């Protein structure tokens, strides 16, 4: 039997008739709000499809098919989004470090300062072959300095971290931070951390050599120092002596743990 | 705090005639408010909001395991009915205090409010911190309502059901996020990781402590309540069996039971 000769009670005929009747009656039914929220939503989608002339809203199976279509569209959208995100992730994975990468790594300055034992200490020569993390701060700093040092102390105590990592804390407040004060401060975090000081002029010069922002004290009306504005970055130098990356405040432990072993391999 | 205390005592003065306010309920309510104050104010409030994950967890525990049930015990039935009636919350309360709904809502709240996203974003502002505290209190009231709601029909009746509910809603599911906190190799919450250390407590150690507080802190309350329920259940069963052993009450010649004059339906 040819398709155009289908009897009136065949499924296609029922499909047609229900389509026509639904266009005329569906709006009146929905205005009485006979169902709950989800059912109304289904009906609304159905009407949109009806208006397009693609699907008549007739039975549960048709509604299910319609929902499947929307779910498929949503899934397709999600897959596209996922692929795009993966593309972005891949582009960020091409970066070697999670910290701020330096475009043109510069050699570490070999400044000579005084350590907490009162001995001269050359920032480069005395730390040869190690990863050097140089930080300019002051012992009475209320937040950034202790947080950076505590983070480094926690990270360096983790198993699997390379042993050749030296943390150099250079004070920017030499009047208050005597070698003893610096040692006491650093010992709260790690006895391995190296504290350095010098004259005011030397320290300003060292900050310039490391391309750090030179610390400046904030003074109140009476001329008393209230706070010291200083560079919050940790300057990281690989064992090859080049400043590869920097870590601003705040830097999370996951970043340090990822980057330090990579830095340690750059000889 | 005043939003709780003032309406409570204003309502107390307007108690319906013939109903005497129980002193124990007042004491429970005051104790609940005091605990709320301890958990919210300095030092615990400040430490929990900005410095220590363990303090944050202790706050959560006090809000949900102590303040919420004690406040519920401090509210008289008539007051709860009047409040629910005025605020048109009776039906909503009835639905939300169904054990499955209450358990799911509480644990959903627990997982959301301990997710790194929620903690790092909400704890960063005062309003967010307040919203989190409020969420905890509401979650606590919800989860305890099937056990100690002032409205009797919102309470669960069977003892085994209550014990199972307590175990599942407050004992089992919270152990999952607690496990994550205890066994995570890195600090999950940036806000506590990047805060100045308190007494040299490292961020990872603090987080492990928080996980332990979450996992173990609720045990005495949950199991203590289960033991009390078990004792009451055994007492009730004993009373029932003693009643069953008594001789049958005399029946009328027609076979109907004699009804006492104190029958509430008469």
What would you say this structure looks like, in words?
The complex is a heterodimer of chains A (267) and B (266). Chain A has 267 residues and is α+β, with helices and mostly antiparallel strands. Chain A folds into two domains: 11-93, no CATH class; 100-265, Glutaredoxin (3-Layer(aba) Sandwich). In chain A, 43% of the residues lie in helices and 17% in strands. Chain A has helices at residues 11-31, 37-52, 60-93, 144-156, 179-187, 200-209, 253-265, and strands at residues 100-101, 112-115, 120-122, 131-137, 165-171, 194-197, 216-219, 225-229, 234-237, 243-247. In chain A, the strands form two sheets. In chain A, strands 1-10-9-4-5-6-2-3 form an eight-stranded mixed beta sheet, sandwiched between helices. In chain A, strand 5, helix 5 (179-187) and strand 6 (194-197) form a beta-alpha-beta unit. In chain A, helix 1 (11-31) crosses helix 2 (37-52). The longest helix of chain A has 34 residues, at 60-93. Chain A starts with 10 loop residues before the first helix and ends with a helix. In chain B, helix 2 runs antiparallel to helix 4. Mean pLDDT of chain B is 90; it is low at 255-266. Chain B has one domain (21-243). Chain B has helices spanning 2-13, 23-40, 44-51, 53-73, 77-86, 90-96, 99-113, 116-122, 126-148, 159-172, 175-183, 190-193, 203-217, 219-245. In chain B, 71% of the residues lie in helices and 0% in strands. The longest helix of chain B has 27 residues, at 219-245. Classes of the chains: A alpha+beta (267), B mainly alpha (266). The interface between A and B is medium-sized, with 14 and 12 residues.
At a glance:
The complex is a heterodimer of chains A (267) and B (266). With 267 residues, chain A is an alpha+beta fold.
Question: Which tags fit this structure?
Answer:
heterodimer, A: 267 residues, alpha+beta, Glutaredoxin, eight-stranded mixed β-sheet, two-stranded antiparallel sheet, 43% helix, elongated, disordered N terminus, B: 266 residues, mainly alpha, 14 helices, disordered C terminus
